[in-house]
Amino acid sequence: MVCAICRFGATLDDLSDCILRVNPPDDIGPFNDTGIPLQVLYGDGTYGVAGTIGVSPFTFGSYSVQRQAFLHVTKSTVGALSNLGIYGIFGLSFDFVTSSRITAAVKARYGNSTTWGQSVLHNIFDQHPNQPNFVSLYLSRTDDLEDTQGGSFFIGEYDPKFADVARSPKLPQYPDGGDRWTTLLEGIYVGGKAISITSSIRGVPAGHAQAMLDTGDPTANFPTAIWNAIYSLIPGAAKYADTTGMVWIIPCNTTTIVELAFG
What we know:
Blueprint lengths: L1 E2 L4 E6 L5 E2 L11 E11 L4 E14 L2 E14 L11 E4 L9 H10 L9 H8 L7 E4 L13 E4 L26 E9 L2 E2 L14 E4 L11 H9 L5 E5 L2 E5 L8 E5 L1
Parallel strand pairs: 2-7, 3-6
Antiparallel strand pairs: 1-2, 3-7, 4-5, 5-6, 8-9, 10-11, 10-12, 10-15, 13-14
């Protein structure tokens, strides 16, 4: 995917805004720098990006936004992405002030009635009021699971190969009205055997966990108790203590199937 504001490869992240990475290979082109400073931290809060909010025309496929806010990054402690040729993040997060740092910063400077700081998706949906407000993502990997291959991203429509998804049961957001893509995880099975699920989040039903769907993270993050339960059911797995703490040793020739149940 190419983010036209940045004119280079970008990744899709449903927990972020449209963020410009630092040191792109080519000049990003002209834009209006508002001078509004902004810092965005990720994960455990020890790494992130910082810069100022810019405004520029934005084009993605057949969609075009004349005045799109984005973060012009001048400092970054996020590694690895540039090694993959990725210098931008196309954010798919909710446009609430509590989840959109750009929207919050613009409104804090210019007032709550200001709208030019809203997200790319918000602008696109505003331009197409008769189009359904959803996106569809198809994430694909190579057969050895070591790299990405293929995949698709659609706004307001489904990938024709997966059109039947439109008639599939919908997963409700949990909690309803939240500012993240979260839903209830109802079961985890390893080799057909169920493991116990508990949650420390208030209000989550017994035997369930609140799961956050993150397109920007290639791995799963679980509490230690769930990790131990999963690995303990893998044939031949053994728990081992090294200098970094407790780890699980897995035989190279063992296989199993891990299933997550939603809805």
